[in-house]
Design goal:
The structure is a homodimer. By secondary structure, chain A is α/β, with parallel strands linked by helices. In chain A, 37% of the residues lie in helices and 21% in strands. Chain A has an eight-stranded mixed β-sheet with strand order 5-10-2-1-13-15-16-14, with helices on both faces. Chain A has a two-stranded antiparallel ribbon with strand order 3-4. The relative contact order of chain A is 0.16.
Chain lengths: 259, 259
């Protein structure tokens, strides 16, 4: 069974949290893939370069200058920093963007109507991926060779254009293509019944219970697209989905999704 | 016979020249590796971030902030831009830094006495590589799988630290480790007898003729370390060294070194 871990910017951009995550990830066993974010640092570099980060409904509008920054930060600094740390801890990691080896091809997102039903936004150099756009054989060959692929969410369209992709959806697409088990790792212990109480982790969550949590306002804004995405991955063929703390990879725990 | 191409910042940082290079590189046949620079863009990004690039005897002094920039620019933007272009032209490229798959390990350069014999400089996070620090088996496995490795000159020390490496010496080290033929590609047609006349290419150059060119002042400052490095690679086991125009890969020509 292949495990696919997704870790977000709140961990990647915090050197202590990242080091702990890498040490634990390296100590895991079995074939595994890591997909990482890095959005906090990307916004900092944009601002240092005098660019104003623009996000609409949580997604970064990516003009040419922004594409260069996110490629530098995600595929460059974050990716190689993670790989060097994993190598140090004895994990034979190989850092990749979707273009490398033709691993993942994305489709540039057409202008999109927002949830208000009126505003149409062109997100620029943003690419969407599906399980069908993942080069499963290439990733399996790397795993067979004992390598641990570490992906940034920078992809290409196959016609020479790099595209910025949401790391959660990229993780889900690779996971479904591989029939892997998905571990969404972040700074909380799982889906919480009371979001101010880290001990209130809900051990299993099905769509009906998720709907109740939403109705009661117990899941926060950022968790909703993450959970929607996670349930979709489970329906589409992921062999399991767990949401857990990035600092506790070696323990059991977290929230397991069920259909 | 494996071919190893090195292309520098003057080509990588010029979109038209880079596109032409990638189109021709993709049309080449046989197992091949690319090592690229990107120093012009790195200096621009440093300046845009309010850092002042410091170079001593042609080498960039690399503090922590500079290391982040060169990793972002070389291993991030330049590397993925090149890979996406090569993929578009049908070449199954895979972009790598030395840390990826443990491909190349570097040794942090100790403080160094300059050519004045007095000044001692700590270059910071700068790493030196030798043919022995190249993971030959890993690179051969990629080539056997039909992949074309594309390396930025960012390496690691195996203890979690990334290190900035000179791309010419990294190319030479990989070339010697593989027993490959080295092609140094740049914006001129080869080593010129008259540096203002692009038709005055010297077809073959041996150490005695090189010494005469230096004595007569015909080779310029930047060419001397490049040629010293190239002759060293040839002595150490490269199966050939050619210096040629990055825009004319598919033609014969350029300067071939002989011992």
């Amino acid at each position: 069974m292949i495990s696919l871990y997704k870790v977000g910017g709140n961990v990647v951009d915090n050197p202590e949290a990242l080091e702990r995550f890498c040490e634990e990830f390296a100590a895991l066993e079995g074939p595994r893939v890591l997909v990482h974010g890095g959005g906090v640092r990307a916004s900092q570099v944009q601002q240092a370069l005098g660019q104003e980060p623009v996000k609409i409904e949580g997604r970064r509008v990516t003009d040419a200058a922004t594409l260069e920054v996110v490629t530098m930060v995600y595929a460059g600094w974050c990716n190689k920093d993670i790989v060097a740390r994993l190598q140090h801890h004895g994990c034979n990691a190989i850092g990749l963007a979707g273009c490398d080896g033709g691993a993942v091809t994305a489709r540039r997102r057409p202008p999109k109507t927002l949830s208000d039903g009126v505003t149409v936004v062109d997100f620029g150099y943003v690419g969407d991926v599906t399980p069908a756009s993942v080069n499963r054989e290439f990733i399996l060959r790397l795993l067979d060779a004992g390598l641990v692929p570490v992906f940034s969410a920078i992809n290409h369209d196959g016609a020479g254009q790099l595209l910025n992709t949401n790391a959660d959806t990229m993780a889900a697409a690779i996971c479904v293509a591989l029939g892997a088990k998905l571990f969404y790792c972040f700074e909380k212990n799982g889906v919480l019944c009371d979001r101010n109480d880290e001990t209130s982790v809900i051990p299993t969550l099905d769509p009906a219970a998720y709907q109740r949590l939403k109705d009661e306002g117990r899941v926060a804004d950022g968790m909703i697209p993450k959970l929607d995405n996670a349930f979709r991955a489970l329906r589409d063929g992921a062999s399991g989905v767990v949401i857990r703390n990035a600092a506790r990879l070696l323990e059991s725990g977290g929230t397991e999704l069920k259909l």
